[in-house]
Amino acid sequence: MIKKILIANRGEIAMRIIRTCREMGIKTVAVYSEADRDSLHVRFADEAVCIGPAPSRDSYLKISHLIAAAEITNADAIHPGYGFLSENSKFSRICAEHGIKFIGATPEQIDKMGDKATAKATMNEAGVPCVPGSEGLLESLDHAFKTAKAIGYPVMMKATAGGGGKGMRAIWAESELEKAWESARQEAAAAFGNDGMYMEKLIEEPRHIEIQVVGDQSGQAAHLSERDCSIQRRNQKLLEETPSPFMTPELRKAMGDAAVKAAKYIAYEGAGTVEFLVDKHRNFYFMEMNTRIQVEHPITEEVTDYDLIREQIKIASGTKISGRNHEPHMHAIECRINAEDPYHNFRPCPGKITAFHAPGGHGVRIDTHVYAGYTIPSNYDSMIAKLICTGRNREQAIERMKRALDEFIIEGVQTTIPFHRQLMDHPDFVAGNYTTKFMESWEMK
After folding, report:
1. Would residue 292 show up in a list of annotated catalytic residues for this protein?
2. Which class does domain 207-441 fall in?
3. Could you say which of 227, 233, 252, 292 is catalytic?
4. What are residue 411's DSSP bridge partners?
5. N or C: which end of the chain has fewer CB within 10 A?
6. Which pairs with CB-CB distance under 8 Å and at least 24 residues apart come from 434-442?
């Protein structure tokens, strides 16, 4: 059994992992940059090691510093959380070389699913429905023109190493393709050091629905139902809910079966997410697989009574899963509370929190690392808390979320709390009638 875990991350996910480790009797090591010295995860871990200055490249992305911290504290495992190095096969491989268990996918699984073009080819082999598109990467602009003509416009060009919406372009006509090709490649090269592009059919009126899966070291896999992540701004999720208001029992079974098939095909180990685009006719297509824990994992935990971090640790220790699929028995919504100003195009608002009051009560959960007096650094993602509300049904979850948002007080910086409060009253959201394009017409009141 794992005895001590170094958490190679920061913020709320580091706090989340610490909590489960405490319940399991496992010691924890926090790592932190100089900018995160006052973060709660540093205070609550059993040990803490500074791994460098504020920039991520000099701290949280510095593999040598993380391995050194694990070795000097005698940690026998590393939990990467999400983001940073969580889907880095090199990091997973180096951990193994140093006798440290990487709590996540194996290097081979990350390589198969981390690159979008490779992942799509793998899923085609597995028989999982995929969006019609290019066979591998586009070799040239001429190849892009021929592929688009074969697929039929509109098409979507995507960076193979992409994430966060970078290197993506929607192309509605042949006349737009050359400009999109150049700009997408330049953006991808700057963001990821890789300008490889592939092309897919653009799915109209899409919903972004993902299936949570778990797999053990023996090749067994199961799913824990879906999460609807369609409320997005610039391909960044703002709110997630489960079950999806668009879901039917037949669609859940078909998507769940496909996700389990995907996990079993690569003998997936740990917790992961198979993400799909679903069109207005409820046809679904594989988009990508995240070989890590997701930001939005708490809503699945709330409706299935299943601790996903605990399961990750148990699987890493060699425990077999039951293989039983889990369906939601309640409804949960997660609002991502970001230090951003929704009245001014969601611009980031780092700074000092002067007052902080978290909501509470039945069915309300807060995952955060901040407090009154904490200074939000400008070096990292702007998310400072996750507010999760659970009810017997969707209507109750929405009403509970309204109440919780009204109670949530953060002063000193602007946050997305007002945005979420307005969203809860939007007629299309209340009706469950939204797609990934929902935010394109959003206006704050």
Report:
1. yes
2. alpha beta
3. 292
4. 355
5. C
6. 434/207, 434/230, 434/231, 435/205, 435/206, 435/207, 435/230, 436/206, 436/207, 436/208, 436/230, 436/232, 437/205, 437/206, 438/230, 438/231, 438/232, 439/231, 439/232, 439/233, 439/238, 442/233
pLDDT at 164 > cutoff 80:
no
- What kind of architecture, by CATH, is found in domain 4-103? 3-Layer(aba) Sandwich (3.40)
- Domain ranges in the chain are 4-103, 132-201, 207-441
Cα gap 414→260, rounded to integer Å: 41
Place of tokens 């919406």: 165
Condensed to tens digits (0 to 9), the pLDDT of residues 306-329 reads: 999 999 999 999 999 989 999 999
pLDDT surpassing 90 at residue 243: yes
Partnered with residue 169 across adjacent β-strands are: 157
d(CA 374, CA 40) in angstroms, rounded, equals 9
**Percent of the chain clearing pLDDT 70 (strictly above):** 100
Give the pLDDT band (50/70/90) at residue 166: confident
Q: Do domains 4-103 and 207-441 have the same CATH topology?
A: no
Query: If you write DSSP's letter for every residue of 49-83 in order, what string do you get?
Result: EEEESSSGGGTTT-HHHHHHHHHHTT-SEEE--SS
Asked whether 309 and 367 are in contact (CB, 8 A), the reply is no
Q: Residue 291: CA atoms inside 13 Å, Cβ hemisphere, count?
A: 28
pLDDT in tens, 199-228: 999 998 999 999 999 999 999 999 999 999
Residue whose token pair is 């299943």: 306
151: number of Cβ within 10 Å: 18
- For 353-396, how does the pLDDT look when each residue is reduced to its tens digit (9 = 90+)? 999 999 999 999 999 999 999 999 999 999 999 999 999 999 99
The C-alpha atoms of residue 341 and residue 351 are separated, in whole angstroms, by 12
Tell me the average pLDDT across 436-441: 95
- Residue (of 143, 144, 156, 2) closest to 74 by Cα position: 2
Residue 341 has pLDDT above 90, yes or no: yes
Q: What is the CATH number of domain 132-201?
A: 3.30.1490.20
